[in-house]
Design goal:
alpha/beta; Alkaline Phosphatase, subunit A; Arylsulfatase, C-terminal domain; 16-stranded mixed β-sheet; 10-stranded mixed β-sheet; about 20% helix; globular
Amino acid sequence: MKNFTPFAFCASFLLAFLSLGAKRPNILYLYVDDMGWGSIGPNGQAERKALGKPYVLTPNLDRLAAAGVNFRRGYGCTVCSPARSSQQTGFHQGYTFADRNDPDNAKKAIRTEDLTMGDVLSKAGYATGYWGKWGYGGSRDMQTPTLDNIQTLPTSHGYQFVVAELHHVRAHTFFQPTLWNAPAKPGAKAGLELRPNSMSKYANNKAYSNYPASQNHPDYPTVAYCDDVYAFAALDFVRKQALEYNQSGKPFFGLFAAQIPHAPFKEVQRLPNWDQAYKDKPYFSKLSAQSKQWCAMVTRIDAHFGNLIDALEDPNADGDKSDSVAHDTLVVFQSDNGGPRGSNRDELNANGGLQGSKGSIYEGGIRVPTIMRWPAKITADSKLKLGSSTDLIVDCSDMLPTFCELAGTPVPLGLSGVSLAPTLTGKGEQRVRNFLIHEAGGQASIIRGRYKLICSRGNAKAAKPGSKSKKRPKKSASGKNTGNVQLYDLQTDPAEKNNIASVQSLLVKELNALLTGERVDEAAGFANTYHSWKGAKDGAIGQASNWSDYVYQNAGEIYMQENGSPQSHWCAKIDRGSALADKDTEFLGLELSARLTVKSGATVHARNELRVEPKGRLVLQGGTVESLRWVDVQSGGTLAGHGTVKADLFCKGTLALNLDKPLVVEGTVKLSGKLSLSGAGKVKSGESITVLKAKSISGRFENDKISLAGQSSSVAYTANSVTVTAK
């Protein structure tokens, strides 16, 4: 789709951020595969140890939690592929191309227009690395895998240093003979090359000899245990980039996506001293074979994490920590989904007593261990208490916008996730994500605060005129989210044992309407699409010919094709000319860096956000704009005229308000920009005019005095209005 520019970033945004002298943090993201919510100390293992029950050893993750914050309500997805897609792109399963473990995902899950963590952070000047299970872009062949879709590879999405497995099935062994690497030799396709899966590079290097001890053992396999290779490549990167950070200030982002503790479990027994950590634990010999293997895997990856954390504190491993970068590094630990069925769940309570397991829509399938540590910001005096656990809801789709804000670069348009940077730093306004969406086979769920609704997924809705997509056969005859309705109060019933749907019918109806609106009924192959304005001056915003088409194709095959009028899954940009809305129009996200005029009687709905960029101008001529989230007027942007905003309004730009009729906001308003006025004739001295009404107002305009019809006037604020008074 040629007309939509994925890197339409505002360079001045980053320059302004850097000019303030803000120190951008390094980010180290530790990501595991199939590790249940209850598998770490703060979520139950510490209690098991205290009670003398079998437990898994995770000393380094427990150390991380003690120095940071444990998020008890962290969420991933139900299975591997959508978790990685949501994590990387910031869209939940209703909008991401990979909404389930579809065989085609490995070939085509992430598109050129999808901006990933690697994309935005490399563009913002970060050194970027990825090690582990990527899952997309390469074939599954064990001996001679091929690159099947260049646009979905990590090197096509900003990752500069890579040691990875590209196909999720090929990653279902820990001893695959080769791994994909970058940087690659000159001429390598997509900047990736296959290299032998070997530990030889690290075997005799004393700086890497602390763990696992078995890597220097004479019986260590010739083909390495792949997570050892990932871990030491990550360690290499962290040490080198930490020294670079100290010298030049260039920050780094590293994502270690371990295959551990995904099956097959028994392969860990091919390693020498595989169960060494449990030799002094009497309970270990009584566990089933699978539980022993699982424990060994988890403790092995925990030790690798410990090496990485130590490297932040002592990058050159010389014992002198004066070169530590730990203070300025955000470390995030998370699992992709809940733990699987098996003896580890039963014997070690790996899912923490939550109902369900991997693949399930219940909490045991989607709630995941989540820890964050950032000594520079998460301190004893911050809102997030050091060494504590919190019930603040955190989703994997929140990571991309969070990292963007911390890096000082704009967040991609229309995301499902919301930046947590204000909560982590204690500065700025924490915006609200009102609900979370998950899908699992024939079911979908919505979580809003303490309540969780589960419904059967209906059919995929019929494609819109001019829209084509590869779709699965229909699974249900209902076409709606009806039947099998379950409602749980997660605050009092986290194990989801008491279905209260029958006594909360109004809440069920409300949540179900939101859930259906998030496109969970669409079949595989559906995703948000990207479109740019190409209309003439004041062209109709709803007219199909004024918008670019969207086509997703690879190697001559079209996966998605959409044209026609705007739809509620469009991420659209008006970045030239001007547009006119005289009829109702829907988008997922709408960005203005040119002019949009909304006439009386018309509504422009941008479900996730309407963003007015610098030089953008949104003019209401009695019309309405609405969003389930917010209208965001950025510095240099303008919202002008009178009408209604059915959303929260964040304004760092200019509100050019009308003296004849006020702007009405049916949400909260956060002010920090400028006020200008127009309309009306001579105003009497002492006369007050209300120019803004809202549910609530906080902040102030930069200018407390303003010319009113040629007269000096003052600006006054109440809890829900702004007035100007002529002097």
